[in-house]
Amino acid sequence: MSLVTATRLTKTYRVGDIDVPAIKGIDFAIEASSFVAFVGPSGSGKSTLLNMLGCLDHPSGGTLKVLDTDIATLDRRAAARFRGEHIGFVFQDFNLIPVLTVFENVEYPLRMVQLSGNKWPAAKRKEQVLRMLDAVGMADQADKRPDQISGGQKQRVAVARALVSQPKLVLADEPTANLDHDTAYRILELMKKMRDEFGTTFIFSTHDPKIMGEAETTFTLEDGRLQNGGSHV
Amino acid sequence: MFDVISIASRNLLRYRRRTMLTLLLIVIGMVAVLLFIAVAGSFRSMMVGQITDSVLGHLQVHRKGYVASIDNLPLNLNLKPPMVAKVEDALKANPAVETWSPRVKFGGMFSNFAETTSIRVNGIDPAREAATTPLLPGRMIEGEKAGALIGRGQIVIPQLLARGMKTKVGDTVVVVATNRDGSVNGKTFVVRGILESVTGPGGRDGYVHIDDARELLRMNEAEVSEIAVRLKDFSRLDRSAGQIKAALEGVSNKEGKPVLETHTWADLSPFANLAKMIDLMTLFIKVVLVSIVLVSVMNVMIMAVFERIREIGTIAAIGTPPSRILSLFLAEGLMLGLVGTVAGTLLSLVAIFGINLWSPTFNFGMQQNLVMAPTIAGGDVLTIAALVVVVAVVASLQPAWKASRMDPISALRHV
Ligand SMILES: Nc1ncnc2c1ncn2[C@@H]1O[C@H](COP(=O)(O)OP(=O)(O)OP(=O)(O)O)[C@@H](O)[C@H]1O
Ligand SMILES: [Mg+2]
């Protein structure tokens, strides 16, 4: 059973009276613990697809199953719960919460999102946050504020935040677009290391050819269609 | 909940100056309201207390038509003994009534054998009058305060009269009055005491014993001009007055028309208008406070949501439930309200305490050197504080709701 399956998936935006098709019927499957890139030129539909994978948007047609859940069936609250439980996010501009320290940013999903019971009592929570910070090499910066660390460091913290509640899937839309090449490369290495360590599936998008090479599976989008049905390295 | 409060408070501190300005507005508003309530409210209750407890009583019962011509102190509108008995039965039957005092009121001439002037006199039963208007003995500025208010052959005269007629305690004076039939009668009295003047009708009346009054007026029955009533609980005046009025409505004459009328102190004293005005101003200033809090808190909360759209998108995307996002922003409004309330209350209490230490004096009407002694009831403080906190939360409701409904994708794209 695949972690993600898309069948004849379409997404059409409606701008005024005009339909703008962004995803034009694609099929793919992604296995658990894989390291996948969606690549393609600007406007090809990468973000549109990742938004649907992250249950932030509904498909217009076809089906998209994530962890056996047809995401079209999720309403606002159910989608929020689903994301909180199963999906981690890494953003292009890091999006750490400025009033929280590095430690608290990583702790945030455990305190504010995971509401089901005391799955994360204080002691266990602290241990988990420290473990994540350690894994991304930011344990020594735990008490700093986001504005006191560099972009690369922010993205490391963001990776730790995405993984802290042990989701099955982490989505990263252009996670390296705001980083220089070396740093971008290191973030990709870090994500891959995390995949190895925790078995989490990573799906990211990029239009940087040098970064694409880091993926183990690459899907190329072109004007809302998949080019080759997924090529494995 | 701790997390929501902690994040909200940090967000407030993030825009320190803006938060401070909003708090300042809330604090100024609270201090204005609480000080006004304390100063005007205690002035009001002092004056009302003085009027009711030293002159009028809480309410009064007369023969129908008496109050309309009360300025002339008519003698032909007195209550006859059987009627008085009916009134007393009704008052006895009402558990809200503490006590009452029958009075014979008349106008006459006052003479110290050298000069003559007019005087308004209440003939009273000293014990019942002291029970009905307990502040009356305290108004005695000259003469013995202790003991019976007045004895047979004694008169207590108002300050202005004493000054104008150069009359002292112990002097012998004559009071001359025309009785109902038009014949004139006079009686000598010894001045027992001199009364401080107070605001309101009757504040410059003299007092004699009710039996002397009847004798002077040559009444052959125990007639009564008015019955002043004191209630057990003044705060329930309107209810109790209504009950008494209803009970006395039933007392009718041979033609079946009601013969009695009941008036509360407010019906009888022009100060009631001033009291109403103070109440109205209190309401008005409360409305101003509510508007200040509403507008200032709503303003900062709308700005806070607008500035943090991407942050909202982020926390929504990673799965923060909409209700949590709502409570994050509500908590900010709540804390603005709470901190402003606490600071405003403390400052107000300090100011009220300060005024009491300083105890400035003021004049009102004929009364001079009244000491301003503002007090405020705990209930009033709590009501205002709760009002401010509730309004602050209500003001953040719309912005917080907007934040919780935000679509994560467009919020994240927001620049
Ligand atoms: N909210 C929207 N409303 C209307 N059209 C949209 C919307 N979002 C995306 N589109 C359109 O859908 C198509 C795909 O956009 P998308 O953002 O998915 O591309 P992308 O591959 O992520 O591009 P980039 O590399 O520039 O981020 C584009 O033609 C875009 O104009
Ligand atoms: Mg994009």
Task: Tell me what you see in this structure.
The complex is a heterodimer of chains A (233) and B (415). Chain A is 34% helix and 27% strand. Chain A has helices spanning 46-53, 76-86, 102-113, 122-135, 151-163, 181-198, 209-212, and strands spanning 4-15, 18-30, 35-39, 61-66, 69-70, 87-90, 169-173, 201-206, 217-222, 225-226, 231-232. In chain A, the strands form two sheets. In chain A, strands 3, 6, 7, 8, 9, 10 and 11 form a seven-stranded mixed β-sheet that branches. In chain A, helix 6 links the parallel strand 7 (169-173) and strand 8 (201-206). Chain B contains 13 helices and twelve strands. In chain B, the strands form two sheets. In chain B, strands 2-3-8-5-7-6 form a six-stranded mixed beta barrel. In chain B, strand 6 and strand 7 (184-195) form a beta hairpin. Chain B folds into two domains: 2-50 and 273-413, no CATH class; 65-258, no CATH class. The longest helix of chain B has 41 residues, at 16-56. Chain B is of the alpha+beta class and 415 residues long. In chain B, helix 9 packs parallel to helix 12. The structure holds adenosine-5'-triphosphate and magnesium ion. Residues 46-47, 173 of chain A line the site of magnesium ion (MG).
Detail the topology: elements first, then pairings.
The complex is a heterodimer of chains A (233) and B (415).
Chain A (H helix, E strand, L loop, with lengths): L3 E12 L2 E13 L4 E5 L6 H8 L7 E6 L2 E2 L5 H11 E4 L11 H12 L8 H14 L15 H13 L5 E5 L7 H18 L2 E6 L2 H4 L4 E6 L2 E2 L4 E2 L1
Chain B lengths: L1 H13 L1 H41 L2 E5 L17 H13 L3 E15 L4 E9 L1 H7 L7 E3 L11 E5 H6 L7 E7 L5 E12 L10 E4 H7 L9 E6 L5 H13 L10 E5 H4 L2 H37 L1 H9 L4 H37 L2 E4 L2 E5 L6 H27 L3 H6 L2
Parallel strand pairs in B: 3-8, 5-7
Antiparallel strand pairs in B: 1-9, 1-10, 2-3, 2-6, 2-9, 4-7, 5-8, 6-7, 11-12
Helix pairs in contact in B: 1-11, 2-9, 2-11, 2-12, 9-11, 9-12, 11-12
Descriptive key words:
heterodimer; A: 233 residues; alpha/beta; seven-stranded mixed sheet; 34% helix; B: 415 residues; alpha+beta; 2 domains; six-stranded mixed beta barrel; two-stranded antiparallel sheet; binds adenosine-5'-triphosphate; binds magnesium ion
